[in-house]
Amino acid sequence: MALALKDTTADRPAGARTTADHQARQTRRPGARPARRLGRRAHKALLVTHVLTAVGWFGVAVTVAFVGVVGSSRDDVAFYEVIQATLRLSVPLGLAAAATGILLSVTTKWGLARHWWVVAKELGTVAVIATDVLVVAPTMARAVDSGTPGEIPGPVYAHCVVLALATILSVVKPRARTPLGARRA
Fold it and tell me: What phi, psi does 113 have (nearest 5°)?
């Protein structure tokens, strides 16, 4: 009596992959497999959260810059109060975008330090959060407390540029690897 093996590929939808397919694909790309991988739904949820927080953060940066331009032209301290209030959203959104970005990078092939575009985004994130806390917020607080508007600090405008560049890097994803990433390839 011959033993018949069932063809399981007919039971799968076209294009569906099995665990064996995934493992075989990973062995063809050494160094590309993350230490931990999220399930499809968890990955999508994390990605959506990251995009929403990053877009919100960029929106706050643009709002602060716009209010800064208008406030500088009108020489009215009320605009500085608006900036000060809006900055209360900037740091939490930046931290949320950073946390979700880190989780995405360590659970995907991109890694924390394998590609220059990821490293550039990390450095930009740290710079924007640090200048919000150390430069922009204290300057706005001094202007509001004294009742006299001063000059809008340069980082207010630089944040828009840095966050726009981070968005571009996220879309383009240049393949250039860091020395750490090159060793693992």
Answer: -140, 25
State whether the Cα torsion 35-40-41-44 is positive or negative.
Answer: positive
How many CB atoms sit inside 10 A of residue 84's CB?
Answer: 18
Closest CA to 168 of 123, 126, 120, 103: 120
d(CA 161, CA 172): 16
SS3 state at 104: helix
Using alpha carbons, list the distances in angstroms from residue 59 to 52, 82, 86, 119.
10, 14, 10, 22
Q: What is the pLDDT of residue 118?
A: 92
Closest CA to 135 of 162, 159, 153: 153
pLDDT digits (tens, 9 = 90+) for 7-54: 445 555 555 555 555 554 544 454 555 557 888 999 999 999 999 999
Grouping H, G, I as helix, E, B as strand and the rest as coil, residue 177 is: strand
* pTM beyond 0.85: no
